[in-house]
């Protein structure tokens, strides 16, 4: 088994603002309505890039996708095109804002098909986020199949960062996930603790091991590739931390109606186009 660990310092997220934003977002969507497939917010503006394809809006079994394609956009709505040949569709499995929200998405991008389920518990003041996924190549065998499962216990996360900075880290990581493939297994954990200056120190641990008769072969391969893998792991963690810090540095948290208006704008305005490459 190979084990990689790296700790980064990130800016702290204000819990009160996070829960207020989550509640405002859920409230906006819960108050939305559907008209001829278009999802409208309470102020009448349409949600960008999202249409109801089948079922009743905000009812279990409702299918959502992108807008119609083709000249004049008069065609039948289809799953969202997310890139060259990629298609994504979403099915609402549960919508109970006071208890849980669950969405299943299917992404097909040749040659892979990936199915993912996300469940948010107590959405108005999120308590836990659960994720499961599976993927396969329809034309491939078991080597082209993988699955994974993870959970972010948000209540445990807030408890961990509310401890004195001199206290030991939480015994159980608030964030944990597992991935399984025929050739091996991987387990990822994320454990935060408060720093003296009010920021968070986040430790990320990745453990990888081979499976069955391939375990000795995997051990040899990991032995020779350990250095490059460790560097790639550290770089990935550092990059994620940098993006997190940059996002918080650029934001000015708002509250009340101002926050609600910002979220409504984010839902109804198309994203900025990616800059053209030189």
Mean pLDDT: 86
**Series of secondary-structure elements, N-terminal to C-terminal:** EHEEEEEEEEEEHEEEHH
Strand content: 35-45%
Could you give the count of β-strands? Answer: 14
Give the domain tally: 1
Keyphrases for this structure?
278 residues; 14-stranded antiparallel sheet; alpha+beta
Q: Would you mind describing this structure in some detail?
A:
With 278 residues, the protein is α+β, with helices and mostly antiparallel strands. The chain has one domain. 26% of the residues lie in helices and 39% in strands. Strands 1, 2, 3, 4, 5, 6, 7, 8, 9, 10, 11, 12, 13 and 14 form a 14-stranded antiparallel beta sheet that branches. The longest helix is centred in the C-terminal third of the chain and has 36 residues. About 3% of the residues have low confidence.
Q: Could you give the topology of this structure?
A:
Layout: E1 2-10, H1 15-30, E2 33-35, E3 38-40, E4 46-54, E5 63-65, E6 80-83, E7 86-96, E8 100-109, E9 112-121, E10 128-136, E11 145-153, H2 154-161, E12 175-181, E13 184-194, E14 200-210, H3 215-250, H4 256-268
Antiparallel strand pairs: 1-14, 2-3, 3-4, 4-5, 5-7, 6-7, 7-8, 8-9, 9-10, 10-11, 11-12, 12-13, 13-14
């Amino acid at each position: 088994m190979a084990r990689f660990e790296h700790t980064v310092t990130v800016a702290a997220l204000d819990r009160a603002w996070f829960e207020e934003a989550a509640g405002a977002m859920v409230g906006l969507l819960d108050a939305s309505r559907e008209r001829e497939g278009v999802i409208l917010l309470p102020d009448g503006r349409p949600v960008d890039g999202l249409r109801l394809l089948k079922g009743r809006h905000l009812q279990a079994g409702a299918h959502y996708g992108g807008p119609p394609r083709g000249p004049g956009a008069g065609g039948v709505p289809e799953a969202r095109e997310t890139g060259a040949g990629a298609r994504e569709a979403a099915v609402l499995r549960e919508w109970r804002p006071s208890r849980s929200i669950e969405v299943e998405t299917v992404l097909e991008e040749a040659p892979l098909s990936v199915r993912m389920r996300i469940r948010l518990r107590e959405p108005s003041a999120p308590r836990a986020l659960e994720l499961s996924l599976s993927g396969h190549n329809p034309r491939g065998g078991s080597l082209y199949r993988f699955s994974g499962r993870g959970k972010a216990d948000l209540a445990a996360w807030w408890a961990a960062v509310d401890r004195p900075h001199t206290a030991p880290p939480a015994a159980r990581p608030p964030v944990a996930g597992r991935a399984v493939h025929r050739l091996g297994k991987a387990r990822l954990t994320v454990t935060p603790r408060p720093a003296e200056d009010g920021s968070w120190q986040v430790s990320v641990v990745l453990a990888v091991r081979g499976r069955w008769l391939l375990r000795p072969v995997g051990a040899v391969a990991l032995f020779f590739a350990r250095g490059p893998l460790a560097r790639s792991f550290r770089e990935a963690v550092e990059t994620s931390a940098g993006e997190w810090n940059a996002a918080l540095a650029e934001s000015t948290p708002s509250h009340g109606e101002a926050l609600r208006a910002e979220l409504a704008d984010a839902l109804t305005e198309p994203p900025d186009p990616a800059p053209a490459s030189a």
